[in-house]
Amino acid sequence: MIAAERNGSAVLVADEKVERLDAAGIDPIWRSASVPEVPNLGYVSDTVGFPDPGGVWVIGWVLEPGGIGDKDNGIVVMDGDSPGFHRTDSVDVHVLLEGSLVLELDDGVEIELNAGDTVVVNGNKHRWHNRGTQAARAIVTICGASRTDRQEI
User: Fold this and answer.
1) Distance (Å, whole) CA 73 – CA 66
2) Is residue 151 part of a domain?
3) N or C: which end of the chain has fewer CB within 10 A?
């Protein structure tokens, strides 16, 4: 569902089933190609990938049991030596709705996420695992970012 403002009043502008894209279990929900202005109906196209700097996308994401999120489908550039490892020029806020996921960082650290957990991925190299017995479903807000070489951590 999408709420917006029309003539100074809040209105429901979309209440329809989202059609899954063939790309890695992605359900497009809302998009702004640049820094969002309000009101904004969030036109959704079937383009896959990530927003340009300043753009914001909201998607549903499903990873089936046993999956490691290693299908690039033109969405991200995968590390050929380590299936599933990738990085994006974005800040991604993942809210896990059901199931469980493991976020693996390239230094070997693994973070287990369960329904209700939230993680922010800041353009770092990572991969996802679903080691559970049910599909993992998440809502992800993706904020397009510019990559710099500066490290302040």
Assistant:
1) 18
2) no
3) C
Q: pLDDT tens, 114-130?
A: 999 999 999 888 989 99
Token pair for 39: 């009101």
The pLDDT of residue 153 is 47
Structure pTM?
A: 0.78
In 35-99, beta strands by DSSP E: 56-63, 90-98
- Residue 31 burial (C-beta neighbours within 10 Å; 0-12, 13-18, 19+): buried
Question: Could you tell me the CATH number of the domain that includes residue 27?
Answer: 2.60.120.10
- Average pLDDT of the chain to the nearest whole number: 79
d(CA 31, CA 43): 6
Q: Which domain holds residue 107?
A: 2-144
Tokens standing for 48? 């896959």
Q: What is the pLDDT of residues 27-44, one digit of tens each?
A: 777 888 888 777 766 666
Q: What is the DSSP letter of 106?
A: T
Smallest CA-to-CA distance from 143 within 51, 70, 65, 69 is with 51
Write out the two tokens for 36: 């969002």
